[in-house]
Amino acid sequence: LNDIARFQKVNASSADPTLFTASAEKTAALGNYTLEVQQLATSQKLSSKGFANTTDTVGTGTLQIQFGTYDSGANTFSLNADKPARSIAIDSSKQSLAGIRDAINEANAGVTASIVNDGTANKLVVTSSDTGTVNTLRILVKDDDGNNTNDAGLSQLAYDPTAAAGSGKNLSESTAAADAKVVVDGVTLTKASNTVKEAIEGVTLSLTKVGAAAKLTVERDAGIVRN
Question: Which of 7, 29, 71, 210 matches a 20 to 30 Å C-alpha distance to 219?
């Protein structure tokens, strides 16, 4: 009885934890809710053309990583004001495929890079660190060979979604950036992350799989008081 916090604990339980899990604060709105996960948020992945060896020279110059939203209808790219662009210098000591991978990862620029061998060639894969359409990538190149958009030198890694393939849009999109879509009691919400905090007051949802509707129960934890 001396610990009022024990009477304020709230539990949030999912009828299908494979679809979503939940946690609740003491201020959570108690009740039963129906949730349907229609889409999970994903990070964009871009891949280069194939190289025979990871030591192959790509080129030198500067990569500028930008984040924003791409409108395919208007063919426009709007910058994400909350994530400033980051520039990564690629000099002769890091001009190989492996060197560029390392330079990107060392820069902590909001993306990660890896090299994937598809059985015939090595490809540089660049992945946005954050999910959601607001974190779509645009990679601009200042190429030391003087041409910033052609499919040669460092500009082989250029990716402007508004440009033409081979002329500034030289990486291929293997996974598109996507927002999470969840329906709560008939109301559809779109979020950049699979962690949703605004859908139900005081409740944090962790979306894990697309699937049919399942029940969410938010209730006082009477058991802990009895214990």
Answer: 210
